[in-house]
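Re-run requested by the PI after the first attempt was lost when the workstation crashed. Everything re-entered from the original request form. Ligand of interest: beta-D-glucopyranose.
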Amino acid sequence: MGESHNFRLLVIICNLVVAMGALHISVMVFYYLRHSGAGEYVWSKQVPTASQRAAFTTPPGAEDVAVVSANVTEVTWILEKCPETSPHLVGPLRVEFSDPVDLDLIRQEPLLMDGGHYKPSECLSVQKVALIIPFRHREQHLKYWLNYLHPILQRQQLDYGVYVIEQDGEGTFNRAKLMNVGYAEALKEYDYDCFVFSDVDIIPMDDRNTYRCYEQPRHLSVAVDKFGFRLPYAQIFGGVTALSKDQYLKINGFSNNYWGWGGEDDDVSNRLSFRGMSISRPDVMTGKCKMIRHDRDKNNDPNPQRFDRIAHTRETMDTDGINSLTYSVVKVEKDKLFTKLTVDIGKADTFTPTQTHI
Ligand code: BGC
């Protein structure tokens, strides 16, 4: 009697221990999932490559966890969000345009995908950034840009793609319209939520100047050597700028009607202020940039209409922008380091679209 009573007690205790163990495991799993915010993470059903596994072991700030699923050949990788400030940044950089450029070395980065797309393997980038470069006849400058910017953007832990938007033909250049085309075309490829518009000849001199979007539209090239490392005027919004998709759409993108040099960036600055936004900037040390010296481009003379147009941004911005953009793609080139689109954007006031892409 006494023995069977003890036995029953033992069974009850064992059951309790098992139940407590199960409860303990459930609570741990629950808190682990809560801590990792699993809903926001990418769950990949692929076995990571050697380079991905190596990346997982090294960087600080990323708690990476491999969970072996029921099927032991599959590993599910859960990525933490990338930190606000990347741990890979080195600060001030040496930028020299007399140095040789070896793009094949840059192309060797194993995580680079065709078309100039990259995303870090060690964490989940908070934003998806399209870099848009308006372009024509500046092959040597593009080489420098790619040579310097890819490693910087990678150290900044960005999920990014590079789009070179080349104006077809020899007509008068239209920088802002090419940037609109870049916005529209990049979105056809990937769900970008941030757009960095960069002149091909401006290189940041400090990798803490992160090429991403901020609460307010960002002017990234704030201290260019050409301007004595100072802002030439307070409202300037040229060179390199970053706008989130929302910010861009709020201002109806950029004007399509600035043909030739100058004014189109001042028009954007006006648009931002008319929509109640302000310009954010890094500090002068972080925002230092070097510009490649060059002669004035052919067919990009100062636009005599620019002053008149800037004076009328408020009236024109609702009908002149991404909602009125027309162009046609003439050629697509996919390099490991960029996607180059050659586009027919027509000519001043006489353009009859052959194709509309919006
Ligand atoms: C032009 C801008 C240009 C700035 C700096 C202004 O006069 O209108 O387009 O970015 O000068 O060169």
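Saved to the shared folder this time. Residues 232, 236, 238, 262-263, 265-266, 306 surround beta-D-glucopyranose (CB under 6 Å).
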